[in-house]
Every structure is written in structure tokens, then in C-alpha cells.
């Protein structure tokens, strides 16, 4: 059966399929399939965008989906703790997080320089490498516009690129370890993300201040939650577009 609730909500607002598609950034035929082929539900982000556009609950348009209150409750359950800024977080929280990793170990930053100077962190990386944990480091491409902009945003200018290069040098002993991979990205980061299996720390980026003054979300994945997965999916997108490197000097010679 067609999704008559979706069709009716569009009609009630006097919108055409073309207008809905344009506002959502999809093809009109895609919206038509959402109506005529109920099994072809949109991705979650489009469900919420459509519900917002049509001023309906997601669970009204797609009855098997949860209400916004249920989604909010799950999100609250995922939040272990909110820190007003990184400087008040005990350094051991990062090492404790990564020491528990059994499958996955991700670091997504521009430089994350402060972590590169932690001897305990280096030891944990080596231990997890020996245990067969997949370890991924994603640092900013030093010559990329994104790194330059972040340097300007923090008020340190070219020092941001220098911090990335110094971080790569500090990580030198970790290159070549089994399961340890490094990539350089040129994306705009809104958070530095530190993930170990189903737990993560997301350090926000705020214009005009260093990350150490920005909030940190301590998240843990729970059944039905979406907050953790939203951050985790962004990590995957950065990883897919980032450039693999095999040594600290590999950033040289690129104009990306």
C-alpha cells in the first residue's frame, strides 16, 4: 500500500513532489518512491528532514519509526557525561577509554598534539596493536585550507599546521605497527572524535577558542540510540576520503 500519510501531508501543505525534493536535496522520483514503495523508506536523516518540512512526527509518516520523545530519551541514555571544556577532563579518561578497546580504536583530529606527548597513550597503542585491534589515526593535511582556517579560527594561524607536523613526528614510533594506520584529511571538523569500540569522546570545536576550552561529550552506544552512530558515521566518511601515509614525512610535497 502507498504511504498515504506522506502523500496527504505533502498535499495539505500545498507542495508538489518537485518542491519537496528540492528542499530535501533529492530527486523528485525519490520522493515518489517513498510514497508508492513503502518498503523503500528514506535514510533516517531524510526522515527527520521530511518530518520537519511537513510539520509532522516521523512516527506519523512512518508508523514503525519511533517518536521524537523516544529518540530523545535514547539520546539521553547515550550521554555518559558532559564536560564544559576539555581542560577539566582528567587525562586518564582518554587512556582508560582506549585501554578497553577490543575491536576498534579511532583518533580523528586536526593535530591532537596534547595526546601525542602522553607516554601512557603510546604504550596503549602498542599493546592494542599486539592484541590485533584495528587502530586508525586521522590528522589534518598540514597544507589544506581546512587546517589553515582552523588555525585562524583559534587565533594561532600557521601554528596549527606546525602542530600537525609535530604530532606526526611524535607518532613516528607508531608507524608500521601491525594494524595501525595513519591518514591525512582535508575536511572541516566540527568535533575531534576519540573512539574505542562502543564508547567515544567528542570534543567540540568553537570559533575563536582552542579545543581545550570547548565541551566534551562522553558517549556510549545503547540499543535504539542515534547520537553515537551519528558521530561514528562522520568518522567513517572522513576515513574514506583521507589520504593514507606510511611515515611522518609523507605530508611533504602535497598541495592539498
UniProtKB/TrEMBL annotation:
Name the InterPro entries on file. Cro/C1-type_HTH, Lambda_DNA-bd_dom_sf
> SUPFAM superfamilies of this UniProt entry?
lambda repressor-like DNA-binding domains (SSF47413)
This one is known as DUF5919 domain-containing protein
Per the UniProt record, the source organism is Streptomyces vastus
Q: What is the lineage of its organism?
A: Bacteria, Bacillati, Actinomycetota, Actinomycetes, Kitasatosporales
Amino acid at each position: 500500500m502507498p504511504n498515504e500519510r506522506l502523500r496527504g501531508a505533502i498535499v495539505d501543505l500545498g507542495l508538489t513532489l518537485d518542491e519537496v525534493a528540492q528542499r530535501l536535496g533529492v530527486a523528485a522520483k525519490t520522493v515518489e518512491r517513498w510514497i508508492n514503495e513503502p518498503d523503500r523508506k528514506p535514510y533516517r536523516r531524510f526522515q527527520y528532514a521530511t518530518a520537519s518540512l511537513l510539520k509532522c512526527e516521523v512516527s506519523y509518516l512512518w508508523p514503525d519509526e519511533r517518536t521524537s520523545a523516544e529518540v530523545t530519551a535514547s539520546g539521553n541514555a547515550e550521554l555518559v557525561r558532559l564536560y564544559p571544556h576539555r581542560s577539566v577532563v582528567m587525562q586518564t579518561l582518554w587512556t582508560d577509554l582506549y585501554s578497553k578497546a577490543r575491536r576498534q580504536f579511532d583518533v580523528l583530529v586536526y593535530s591532537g598534539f596534547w595526546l601525542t606527548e602522553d607516554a601512557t597513550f603510546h604504550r596503549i597503542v602498542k599493546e592494542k596493536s599486539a592484541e590485533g585491534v584495528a587502530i586508525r589515526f586521522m590528522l589534518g593535511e598540514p597544507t589544506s585550507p581546512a587546517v589553515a582556517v582552523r588555525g585562524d579560527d583559534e587565533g594561532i594561524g600557521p601554528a596549527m599546521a606546525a602542530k600537525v607536523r609535530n604530532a606526526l613526528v611524535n607518532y613516528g614510533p607508531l608507524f608500521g605497527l601491525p594494524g595501525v594506520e595513519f591518514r591525512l584529511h582535508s575536511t572541516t571538523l566540527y568535533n575531534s572524535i576519540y573512539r574505542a569500540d562502543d564508547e567515544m569522546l567528542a570534543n567540540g570545536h568553537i570559533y575563536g577558542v582552542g579545543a581545550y576550552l570547548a565541551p566534551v561529550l562522553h558517549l556510549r552506544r545503547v540499543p535504539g540510540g542515534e547520537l553515537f552512530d551519528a558521530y561514528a558515521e562522520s568518522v567513517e566518511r572522513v576515513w574514506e576520503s583521507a589520504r593514507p601515509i606510511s611515515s611522518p614525512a609523507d605530508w611533504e610535497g602535497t598541495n592539498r
